[in-house]
Write a structure and sequence with these properties.
The protein has 408 residues and is of the alpha+beta class. It contains 14 helices and 13 strands. The strands form three sheets. The protein has a five-stranded mixed beta sheet. Strands 11-10-12-9-13 form a five-stranded antiparallel beta sheet.
Length: 408
């Protein structure tokens, strides 16, 4: 049976979600003025993580320093990141998507795949259904999405990247030559900078030229696995299933997907601090503690690698989780391969927060005193956030980092 796959992608997610909140308060719409999501221009590490269309007209690009963006546009409006808002909006649009099919795969915080194949009796016209879904999200939630409709995941994702915002696009097999092949080869999903350079040396500049090239030659240049994958993608071939989310074992996790590659230890550990703070706060809110800490990374090759460590005492401490996760991160990553995703989880949960007693006792190394200090700090942070909102206080390394997070 020919499949029907949707790819739903929020338009300029971070900025759209912040704009929607402000519009509800009667404030100007960030999408209609030069604006960005970023940190303080006084901080060198502050970068633009999302931009409005009017800001793009000033030459502002994602990933550049906020200070540079302000020089291009002195009247630029800068909005800070709000991870709690992003998680809420992400959950809201995916909840609507799940009303149309139970087979939904979360691809990132602002996009998902939907397998509509088994829903044909309920929704016989996939294009009309996609428009209905798109309009529901816009009308009920206040932000827009693009939806790509195709017979596999690759083509659906490519279609959703066509003209934006608030559009539905199709990319069926008989449309590949007209709609996809004229595009620059760099537009092909997973075709990275190194692959682009190698292909252009072969005078392969468009996706169509790659599709019509000799597959063996492409594999010789790019390697067997990547070469075959990109050649298949250029021809619209992709048999991967939409993986329906299954109920995970009791645990808490977060993932950060980066618009730009992570290439330094400082960036990676800063991301881990965000993750540790978010996971630990949710764990404490539920009155839980966990024994097993796990860190996951994913590079440009889309392969995931994970390490985990079981600690002797169940924890809900941000500092403890962060310290252990940094060790795992150092074991996982050599610091050279660019990263696109970092994830952290705490599992093997214990409602009572039990522990395995040390032969010498925690007092012998001062761990108990440190633990009590951390506990008081965490409690103070939780109280302040409950009273005044998630942005009222941030840990030192987290300020103005501007990263996107997916909640699980």
């Amino acid at each position: 049976m020919t499949r029907t796959i949707f790819h739903v992608d929020v338009n300029s997610a971070f900025l759209s979600w912040e704009a929607t909140r402000r519009v509800a308060k009667g404030e100007p719409d960030l999408r209609e003025i030069p604006s960005v999501i970023g940190g303080s221009p006084r901080k060198r590490s502050s970068i633009v993580t999302a931009k409005s269309i009017p800001a793009k007209k000033f030459g502002i690009v994602t990933g550049e320093p906020v200070s540079a963006a302000m020089r291009k546009c002195p009247g630029l409006v800068i909005a800070r990141s709000d991870f709690a808002l992003y998680a809420k909006c992400s959950g809201a649009f995916k909840k609507i998507c799940r009303e149309y099919t139970p087979v939904l795969e979360e691809f990132s915080i602002d996009e998902c795949f939907m397998d509509m194949t088994a829903m044909r009796r309920l929704y016989p016209d996939p294009i009309e259904t996609a428009f209905r879904l798109k309009n529901r999200i816009r009308d009920e939630l206040g932000f827009t999405v693009n939806i790509g409709v195709a017979h596999n995941k690759l083509l659906a994702k490519m279609a959703s990247d066509f003209l934006k915002p608030d559009r539905v696009h199709t990319l069926f097999e008989d449309e590949i030559a007209d709609k996809m092949w004229p595009l620059d080869v760099g537009e092909l999903f997973l075709c990275g900078r190194a692959s682009i350079e190698k292909l252009k040396k072969l005078q392969i500049n468009t996706i169509g030229e790659l599709a019509n090239a000799d597959a063996k030659s492409i594999k010789m240049v790019l390697g067997n696995k990547l070469g075959e994958q990109l050649w298949n993608y250029a021809n619209g071939i992709d048999e991967t299933p939409v993986k329906a989310e299954t109920e995970a074992p009791k645990g808490y996790s977060n993932e950060i997907t980066f618009d730009d590659n992570i290439i330094s230890w400082e960036q990676g550990e800063n991301a881990l601090l965000h993750l540790s703070d978010n996971v630990a706060a949710r764990v404490r809110k539920d009155g839980m503690k966990g024994f097993c800490i796990s860190v996951t990374i994913r590079g440009n090759d889309m392969k995931r690698h994970s390490h985990q460590h079981k600690i002797s005492s169940a924890t809900d401490s941000t500092t403890h989780i962060y310290t252990e996760s940094k060790k795992l991160f150092r074991e996982l990553w050599d610091g050279t391969t660019p990263l696109r995703l970092i994830g952290l989880s705490l599992s093997e949960m214990d409602k009572e927060g039990g522990e395995q007693l040390s032969l010498f006792g925690d007092e012998a190394c001062g761990a108990k005193a440190d633990s009590e200090k951390d506990r008081k700090a965490d409690k103070a942070v939780d109280i302040l956030r409950q009273r005044f909102g998630s942005d009222i206080i941030k840990r030192g390394g987290m300020i103005n980092s501007g990263i996107k997070m997916r909640k699980k």
